[in-house]
Amino acid sequence: MAASKEINRRDFLGSSTTGLAALGGITFLAHPERVFGANDRVRVAICGLHGRGRDHLHNYSQIKNAQIAALCDIDENVLRQRLSQMDKMGLPKPVTYVDIRKLLEDKSIDAISIATPNHWHSLMAIWGCQAGKDVYVEKPCSHNLWEGKQLVKASQRYNRIVQHGTQIRSATAAREAVQKLQSGEIIGDTYMARGLCYKWRDTIGRTPVSPVPAGVDYDLWTGPAPQHAFTRNRFHYNWHWFWYYGNGDIGNQGVHQVDMARWGMGVGFPNKVSAVGGHFMFDDDQETPNDLNCAFEFDLPGGKRKMITFEVRHWITNHEAGIGTPELGTPEPKKSAGGPKLGPSSGSHNTVGDIFYGSKGYLATGDEDACTYVVTLGKDQEKQPAVHGGSERAHFQNFIDCVASRNKADLHAPIEEGHMSTAMVHLANASYRLGRTLHFNPETQEVIGDEEAALLLRDGDRGYRAPFVVPEEV
User: Which domains does the chain possess?
Assistant: First the structure.
């Protein structure tokens, strides 16, 4: 080939000192595509097991045409816990890995399922595509907009099945709601959607520098991010609130509702984005905002326009349009006798979902776990019966079925869609951090006339730590 070199897969993996991180401008020759028979099972490796990875394990264990063949985590303590869990479930013992690069050398693995911290998502998924694996990647699919664009390129170049972990797209109620929204048959012409992420988030406090826990490979955990002394707040879960690794709550819980809003409105990338907010009430280690108010504008043919608003709140607040109530699938929080009356310890009054506004009324959806919607019509706001239906497992089943069939068109959350929704998260965060409105070109996927924003949107302020680098050429 003209500008690229063909190399044998085994030779490359065996000779490279930096593993798959060295790829760039190389045509990667993966093993021949496996043809799945009716009784064959897709061999899955779950990468990242502490939090969301537990749900991956639970869901794949209940899918008949899937087998959990390998587990990968930088924390050997967590690995042991998941092995014990699988043993109690009566599941075959999987192979275990600490380093994802070693796992990707395993030719018997058909797919990887990524549930690591955000800063690893795109790089790990790109490596997976280059190694000939299909990929389920948790939301958000990227830590910055540019690497999400690179992931889409990799999935297309290596012809991989890549599903984004926005599982509400597999809920029957949500799919029905979107069909009705886009057809205009239920609330007429939709002009605006509003996403809500009102979720109890207490202070994380301050944690001092401390020794890395035994059994943890903190260098691998850090991966693409700059090195930083270990603290408890920069590790399990609370990494969400630091710009090196996370994207705040809009990129944690909120990306589900951003995706639902964009999907229901039938729009792609925005043209104009602005966000304001702050980190209120608490004096702690958190860097990301705990309250954020965003607006996205979408230019349509004929001079028309649609918009999406999105809001993150962290403390005591109200429900909206029934979202967060039993009517839309959220159980009432349990209160302990003699417990505090205010704050997260008093319950979990979360309001997480979307509202779509049209010429005839509005439609409200519950969160990705509730899988519900309800329609309110007319000037008198006559509420229609709520519709329920869906399960998280259906999303994992959809991925496995597409891996077996090799039919990308059947994916419920293809990476192209995941990237567009995640890009909205990154644009909103960049607008907030810079304190100004951003103008965006959907064709080039670049901000217009703003070098500082362009830098943030590829983590130019943070950079990539070798050898954990997303390549310019995938």
Answer: 5-168+395-410 (3.40.50.720), 171-391+427-432 (3.30.360.10)
